[in-house]
Amino acid sequence: MNKEMLILIILFFQIFSLPLQAAAEKAKVLIIRPEKFYNQSADKAALQRNPFSWSPEQMALYASLKADEIDYFADLTLQAILWDEKAPFAVINNDILAPGEKIKQVTIKQIGREEVILEHDGVLRTFVFKPLVTTQNIESK
To answer: Do 82 and 132 have their domain in common?
Structure first.
């Protein structure tokens, strides 16, 4: 065998053995045992993380809540009214809304000069906005 042929054979084996070495290095498996983190059995650790496994207290709490007891209007704040006969807008929770638009499952039914009527599942709520400056104050100056 000549020297060139020997070099080619050595290079051939080195080139094709690299993927095998890389695959062997990547095949390491890391096993994490939950009981090591929680100081309890693996079954209890798994139950704590399961969002579908509710305690009887949690189930009783959510079963006692009724849809009509939830106040959908509580976290809404009327910040401004941009009133125009043709295109009124209301600013609620930093969102600019027109009649018919929704915010957090609540529909804007009507926008007046100083009030906004909101609706959720047939329940109406009126938010009143008292401006600091009115047209009467400007005209009287």
So the answer is: yes
